[in-house]
Amino acid sequence: MTNMSENEVGYMIHVNRDLCTSCGLCEAFCPVNVFEMNDGPQAVRPEDCWGCETCAGQCPVHAIRIEASSAAKAAFADREKAAPLDPEIKARYKEWSRVLRDVLGLRWHPVAISLVKAGAPLPDVPIPEERLRFCQSLMAARRGRSLMMPANRHACPDGTSILGLTPMPEKLASGELYILFHKLDSVEAAKRMVHERPCLEPRTVDATVVAPLSEAACEAEVVAIVAQPEQIMWLSMATSYYTGHRHDFHASGYNAQCVETTLLPMTTGEINISFGCYGCRASSDVGDDCMMMGIPVELMPQVIKGLEELGKKAIPQSRDKIYLPPF
Ligand code: SF4
Ligand code: SF4
Q1: What is d(CA 106, CA 251) in angstroms, rounded to the nearest whole number?
Q2: Cross-referenced SUPFAM superfamilies, in alphabetical order (predicted)?
Q3: What is the CATH number assigned to the segment(s) 2-74?
Q4: Could you give the CA distance from residue 185 to residue 172 in angstroms, rounded to a whole number?
Q5: pLDDT tens digits, 128-160
Q6: Which ligand has the nearest atom to the CA of 40?
Q7: 59 within ligand 2 shell (Cβ under 6 A)
């Protein structure tokens, strides 16, 4: 039997009662309390569903399926459009992208990230049919996709609320969900982790936008790079090439893309690194040998100049292993 409910946000929740064992995990893990156990799980608040698939992922017998409804596809239909990106800025982004890829040998595109502030005109960027986590959209952009995602295209309640699209669900704000996921030892530790990360005010952002830097349709706020540690090391050095400044990176293993790669560079004006997080490693194709860096766009000219200088001698000599002992 299938129980189906459609909601205004645009998700349908299917529970296969022939498979369901009434274990209650879906009720416990749903960050916004969609389910109540009443002779099996009932979707009593389907209108609150974010389509995050946490319930489906935790169900031991794969009895749950979450499906986007056509209601979600009407997002932003009547919204004012932004002017196209200034050709000079576009050319600058293309050149930055070329230097980054040529000097570092990046496999993937550097990604331009921007947030559409509440009520602001919309850039000409496609809204995906599917719901995605912010980290998944960033990984898709490094492979060439441009994506604009309003709240009802975001599938991760954590990233969506951190980036200011929605209020933070209570189970996340209280730290309760992190304990269920065995990510932290105690509620106190979970609360500290939540407290120490930046978070934008709810509903101050209408959409996230990601695109290959060379194809960005609107001004970037942060450039994100997914690369191997050696490549990230050169970016760190490129940023310091003219100043010698050592970096105070803020990397925790929590909220890799939304906090560490995007929001911290955006709010501090400094580069930041990330080792990835449970969420992005479990839900995207980011390589085990990759990490990330977020660069505030205002630092990009200095990063690119520094990288070009390092690319003349330091990078090729290091890659040639000139100090390798003669075993
Ligand atoms: S998809 Fe997410 S928000 Fe929706 S019912 Fe499942 S756990 Fe709850
Ligand atoms: S997690 Fe799966 S098996 Fe457990 S109550 Fe929910 S639907 Fe049923």
Answers
A1: 22
A2: 4Fe-4S ferredoxins
A3: 3.30.70.20
A4: 15
A5: 887 899 999 999 999 999 999 998 888 888 999
A6: 2
A7: yes
